[in-house]
Amino acid sequence: MQEQYRTLAREGVHEIEINKSRFLCALAPVATEAEAQDFIARIRREHPTARHHCFAYVLGADGGVQKAGDDGEPGGTAGVPMLQMLVRREVRFVVAVVTRYFGGVKLGAGGLIRAYGGVVGEALDALGTVTRRRFRLVTVTVDHQRAGRVENDLRTTGRTVREVTYGAEVRIEIGLPESDLEAFRGWLADTTAGTARLELGGEAYGDA
């Protein structure tokens, strides 16, 4: 698995105008192709009178899934430059839809490529990106007497506390970089006088 990847900070829209044509770039973070397709369909519904709804998306922490569509623009002048911008910026799990309202002035192939790629780049700048790091999920089981201090120490040292479950004992699920595991085992044993139990789970991505 990739150690980390960059993705979109939030959903949003950025608009530019070139020779009377309006280009509206809608960006959204998505986890699956189904979510990407749903977003594309939603933007189409929101702008039923627009001439084109070109799209591109990149999925997978390694960027393994990449798709683009020109939606009636000359081949290679819309979806591909949009996709190239996403790939160049190294963003993952993101979909871009550029809605064009034609202004009556033809831009030519070069003008279209610059417009479609450019509006995606500007939208990424406007909305911002965040980095997600790969974590190992770890569950700490501790008695109620020590749980409050352990949870507080985890949070104050910047650990990613994902869930806390109270029962006969307290289970605290956290995310740890793989390289921190051994040091964490030692810290936990010292903090709880060896009374806490540690279980290793699967892997996930979280905020860096």
How does this structure look, described?
The chain is of the alpha+beta class. Helices cover 33% and strands 39% of the residues. Strands 1, 7, 8, 9 and 10 form a 5-stranded antiparallel sheet that branches. It has a 5-stranded antiparallel sheet with strand order 2-3-6-4-5, with helices on both faces. A hairpin with a 2-residue loop joins strand 2 (12-18) and strand 3 (21-29). Helix 2 (79-88) packs across helix 3 (108-127). The longest helix is centred in the middle third of the chain and has 20 residues, at 108-127. The chain is elongated and about 75 Å long. The two termini are 16 Å apart. 31% of the residues are buried.
Structural class by sheet pairing and helices:
alpha+beta
Low-confidence region ranges: none
Number of helices: 5
Residue fraction in strands: 35-45%
Question: Which H/E pattern describes the elements?
Answer: EEEHEEHEHEHEEHE
> How far from one another are the termini?
16 Å
Q: What overall geometry do the principal axes of the alpha carbons give?
A: elongated
Give the helix proportion (percent range). Answer: 25-40%
The radius of gyration computed from the alpha-carbon positions, rounded to a whole number of angstroms, is 23 Å
Mean pLDDT: 93
- Largest β-sheet summary: 5 strands, antiparallel
DSSP summary, beta strand count: 10
